[in-house]
Amino acid sequence: MTKADLVERVAVEAELTKKDAEQLVEIVLDSIIHSLNEGEKIELRGFGSFRIRERNSRKGRNPKTGAAVDIPAKRVAYFKPGKELKELINNES
Q1: What is the C-alpha to C-alpha distance for residues 52 and 56, in angstroms, rounded to an integer?
Q2: Tens-digit pLDDT profile for residues 18-54
Q3: What is the DSSP string of 50-83?
């Protein structure tokens, strides 16, 4: 599912115009991004949680040349599905 598909689905389900649905989806996604940037954890009950994980700097290799490369420390977004989501996915197979 793409962002456009999600906007279409929200528009149909909530009986909104595509423009209003797109704005709603943008607000939700921007809120998630802003909260993660602030270091907050986001929990959506029945769906899952978003968190930021810290990755330490490390040594890597350039696959083309084999030369050692320093990979800097960084923060990455991490999603952990909730129990209900896991059950729904596994029961519908």
Answers
A1: 13
A2: 999 999 999 999 999 999 999 999 999 989 999 999 9
A3: EEEEEE--EEEE-TTT--EEEEPPEEEEEEEE-H
Angle between helical axes of 3-13 and 18-37 (0-180°, round to 10): 120
Domain boundaries, the chain: 1-39, 41-93
The structure tokens listed for 2 are 């793409």
Q: What are the beta bridge partners of residue 51?
A: 78
Confidence band for 92, pLDDT divided at 50, 70 and 90: low
The CATH superfamily label for domain 41-93 reads IHF-like DNA-binding proteins (4.10.520.10)
Angle at 26 between CA 49 and CA 41, to 5 degrees: 20
> What pLDDT does 91 receive?
85
Q: How far is CA 2 from the centre of its chain?
A: 13
- Could you tell me if 47 and 85 are in contact, meaning their C-beta atoms sit under 8 angstroms apart? yes
